[in-house]
Amino acid sequence: MTPAPWGPLSGPGHAVALDVLLDGPLSRAELSRRLDLSAGSLTRLTKPLLDAGLLVEVDDSPAGSRVGRPSRPLDIVPEAHHFVGVKITGDTAHGVLTTLRAGVVDSADAPLDDHSPFTVADTVAGLISELAAGAPADVTAVGVALGGHVVEASDVVRAPFLGWNDVPLGDMLRSRTGLPVVVSNDVTALTEATHWFGAGHGAATFSLITVGAGVGFGLVAHGRLVTNEDASLGLASHHPLDPSGPPCFAGHRGCAVAMLTIRSIATQVSVALGREVAYDEALDLAEAGDPAARRVVDDAGRALGRFVAAAANFTMPERVVLGGEGVRLADVAREAMQAGLRADRDPLAHDPVIATLSPSFTEWARGAAVIAIQTFVLGT
Which of 70, 158, 323, 345 could form a disulfide with 61 if both were Cys (CB 3.0 to 4.6 A apart)? Predict the structure, then answer.
């Protein structure tokens, strides 16, 4: 049976389908326990979902087993729907094709040599078409994420890396692709992907810190993204971390942007060595024991530890997830990061579990796809 389209659900049926999507396959007994439903109530709720193909039964019995009644947990078919996610940076559009569970099926990139909104929209639409052409079936929806302030899941109010103000990107892409398109701040999208299908899944509360071209912070508390209309302004970017650190572009000395961004770290090492040094080379030199590079990288590592401590002190998360294209800093400066974390924590406090995401831009593009998946499934 080909599963019917998954539309927004409501009430207990929605809870059943969502639990199976996020954690399936799940036995009926487990679903009954999670949702506090009787066996009869669960059967009544799942029958129309099974009849519609939204849920399927899978055989959970060991191969060759013939003893007793076989277990038939409930699951969804991830390949029943496909989504495109695109992360826009200052120089490239990174795209992925995913399943309903955000499994990456394909990926592709497109350079952005011109930042004019119309040219970027044309390039992104072409990337979406390229990825959609390789999908086994029609693409259900598209998510686009970028570093900037986004409102109404469509309009880019401000995107500094692109030099944009008030760009109706969602409408521009919908008219070019004929597909449903949602637009999101990139850190918000990555936080939701980490929440639903990543290192934050299963944690009632976790914080996400990203380091790269910028610095980002996301928070999930009691299983929900903490957000408001100002969330995509990057409010944590200028959190003070080192009063003796370098100034940022806004004149804040030793703030998160000044201490943790790729450009800042590479620039400091370049000045110290008297030659141009890229970020990865700066980290390589630090690992090899170069004194100047080691000092800069360890200063950044201590600052990152203080940022983690601030997140832990204010939000009390079960986990802190570190991500972004500059996240290798956490490995190269691990001892300094731990020292910064301990310096700003009560000696009796338990350190949060720290998880690290891949630095690949595929992770960001997958986050954009998850925003489309959430919109499709939840209808929000």
Answer: 70
